[in-house]
Amino acid sequence: MTITAITNVTMIDGTGIDAIEQAVVLVEKNHIKAVGTSQTIPIPSDATIIDGGGQYLLPGLIDTHVHMALEIKNVQESLLTPFSYRFFEAAKRLETTIQTGITSVRDAGFADAGIKKAVEDGLVDGPRMQVSINPLTITGGHGDSWNISGIDTTQPVYPGMPDGKCDGREEVRKTVREMLRAGADVVKVHATGGVSSPTDHPEFTQFSQEELEVMVEEATFRKGVKVMAHGQGAEGIKNAVRAGIHSIEHGIFIDDEALELMLEHGTYLVPTLLAPLAVLEAAETSNTMAPYAIEKSKEVIDIHKKSIEKAYKAGVKIAMGTDAGVFPHGINLRELGLMCEIGMSPMEAIVASTKTAAECMGWGEKVGTIEAGKWADLIIVNGNPLADIHILENHEHITFVMKDGNTYKDTLAI
Q1: In 3-state terms, what secondary structure has residue 96?
Q2: How many other CB atoms are there within 10 angstroms of residue 64's CB atom?
Q3: Comparing C-alpha atoms, which of 215, 284, 319, 204 is closest to residue 252?
Q4: SUPFAM superfamilies in the record, alphabetically (predicted)?
Q5: 163: how many CB neighbours lie within 10 A of its CB?
Q6: Which residues are known catalytic residues?
Q7: What is the mean pLDDT of the chain?
Q8: For residue 14, what is the DSSP state?
Q9: Based on CB atoms within 10 Å of each CB, which residue in 63, 143, 193, 271 is the most buried?
Q10: At what angle do helices 234-243 and 209-216 cross, to 10 degrees?
Q11: Tens of pLDDT, residues 331-359
């Protein structure tokens, strides 16, 4: 069996230990066979050699909060775009994402099982996916884009994309079952209001704790599926954590009690610091952002940073996630620089984007670190991200991308 040997690299293995110079990684089929240095790992004579040219080897990066079937447009353009066009757009976004060095994603809404299967079957180049199908939302809450004019711009439902609106325990129970039937790997719920919805506010609480407990019961206890919660207001976050929800997305108005509960329950936090910043940047250059989204982003952006800083200092488990789709796909890795701005070291930001993100997705035994036996998801960067985390933001600095032992990008010789 042909072995691929990656040599002449400095390895940042995702575990948080110091970088290892003159590292060698052997890949066989889709798995990592051996990891070491040029002094400890013999290279088979018939191995295919990938010379890293003294660059930096990392695990494939992981974004735990994306929307591959979404990218914000102005309302007129959205209304005039043919329905099937979105699938071709998703294919392009998937390709863009893997070219940035992201080899696994957790889709937080609107990608269906067919998009995931297209990647798995090789019809489309893209990162490995978990899909949540359609987020659960209350009538009039975040996820219900009914406008005061009476025009409803909520994403349409179709076979494979059940309606996410539900109210009351029994509607919630049935809707979770419909998402699982449609192929959800994770169930997504809007536990609070949000920035991008027209009729609510991020601090508004959606769903009772009892309704959230039904979601966990149906998903986790019956199918072993985790529940992720869009949670921005403190009370909604606390309801979600008490209900047993696995991860809190955004966490804008986290308070001390919420942090204590998250530590007690081992709940993950996915900050998405880039999302409100990107909304405000887009407002300056385009007409894609609704006025209410702009105003709410201005209101929350500084509070958001302080909340995530407080969570980091408290020791809450933080997994990297971006909310790509609220902004253009491909700039996801700006999130790591923002994580460093709230106090993380570059190494901690990388671990949040590899090891911790993999654990958040339940894939800690398969991806996230460079270890023998794990899937061969590897990237090479032409600079030291420990010295400058921002180097990851420009996809041109990502010179090599491997997923499942297959090469998706190789500009090492350029």
Answers
A1: helix
A2: 28
A3: 204
A4: Composite domain of metallo-dependent hydrolases (SSF51338), Metallo-dependent hydrolases (SSF51556)
A5: 14
A6: 188, 323
A7: 95
A8: S
A9: 271
A10: 40
A11: 999 999 999 999 999 999 999 999 999 99
